[in-house]
Amino acid sequence: MKIEKIKIATENGNLAAVINQPEKQGDKLAILCAGFLDSKDYRQLASLAQALAERGYVVVRFDSIGVWESEGDISQYTMTQYLEDIKSVLEYMLGQHEYKNILLGGHSRGGQMSILYAASDPRISIVLGIMPSSGAILGKRRETWEKAGFGIDRRDLPNEREKKIEFHVPFAHVLDRDRYDAIGEIKKIKCPVILIAGELDKSVAPEDVKELFNNANQPKSFTIMPGIVHDYRFSEKEVELVNKKVLEQLDSINV
């Protein structure tokens, strides 16, 4: 398997991406989207990319404009920009090769963005949401964010959990997020949808993922993973269990 780092040009700067190439070039493409302020190189995406490549997918994962290795400022890190980033990645990959089967998926915010994007692009063949978020930012978190003008979030470096990077995300990010309704948009998706929840997820409750499932069209699947938390990337065993379930669900719909 070949792993290649690339840059994808966009109107707002270059996107940093990684492509996992299978042993034999086929007609299956997977685009994996990272969660809120998460790196494309976090274990849950990197490991899933490898698993999918072993199934014959060309897999691309990327950092959104404004964070990690991509260009741009944190003020550009919005859901609106994220949707444009997905489109840029898709157009770039289709410019390199013709793909008949296109999987779009991700973890947490990445799953939410996959749902939102797929609702308006019929080229997507299957949507994968692993603990996908869906609601707005509300309550005390929103109030604190608005009062300060920005929210502070810290993320561990890929493969270096003890080292942190700090992001100051403008409140404009929250207002942009208010524009999008994943529960409403999932109703528009005509391709298969795979949704996976973590039983012990404290960030995206299983019942919230179930609500997305209830509003999705057939064919669709919903699984609650026993003992799995939101940040399951910290456990190699949990990553393997989630990956296994993803592959099982893909097999069940013959893709």
The oligomerization state is single chain
- CATH architecture, by name, is 3-Layer(aba) Sandwich
Q: Measured on Cα atoms, how large is the radius of gyration?
A: 17 Å
For the secondary structure, the number of strands is 10
Structural class: alpha/beta
Distance between the termini: 20 Å
CATH topology: Rossmann fold
Summarize model confidence as the mean pLDDT: 96
Strand content: 25-35%
**Number of separate helices:** 8
Helical content band:
25-40%
Uncertain spans, ≥5 residues at pLDDT below 50?
none
Please sum up the structure shown.
35% of the residues lie in helices and 28% in strands. The chain is of the alpha/beta class and 255 residues long. It has a single domain (2-134, 181-252), classed as 3-Layer(aba) Sandwich (Rossmann fold), CATH 3.40.50.
List the helices and strands and how they pair.
Layout: E1 2-10, E2 13-21, E3 28-33, H1 43-54, E4 58-62, H2 79-96, E5 101-107, H3 109-118, E6 126-130, H4 139-148, E7 150-157, E8 160-170, H5 172-177, H6 182-186, E9 193-198, H7 206-215, E10 220-225, H8 236-252
Parallel strand pairs: 3-4, 3-5, 5-6, 6-9, 9-10
Antiparallel strand pairs: 1-2, 2-4, 7-8
Helix pairs in contact: 1-8, 2-3
Task: Write up this protein.
With 255 residues, the protein is of the alpha/beta class. It has one domain (2-134, 181-252): Alpha/Beta hydrolase fold, catalytic domain (Rossmann fold, 3-Layer(aba) Sandwich). Helix content is 35%, strand content 28%. The protein is built from eight helices and ten strands. The chain has helices at 43-54, 79-96, 109-118, 139-148, 172-177, 182-186, 206-215, 236-252, and strands spanning 2-10, 13-21, 28-33, 58-62, 101-107, 126-130, 150-157, 160-170, 193-198, 220-225. Strands 1-2-4-3-5-6-9-10 form an eight-stranded mixed sheet, sandwiched between helices. Strands 7-8 form a two-stranded antiparallel ribbon. Helix 1 packs across helix 8 (236-252) and helix 2 crosses helix 3 (109-118). The longest helix has 18 residues, at 79-96. It is globular, with a radius of gyration of 17 Å.
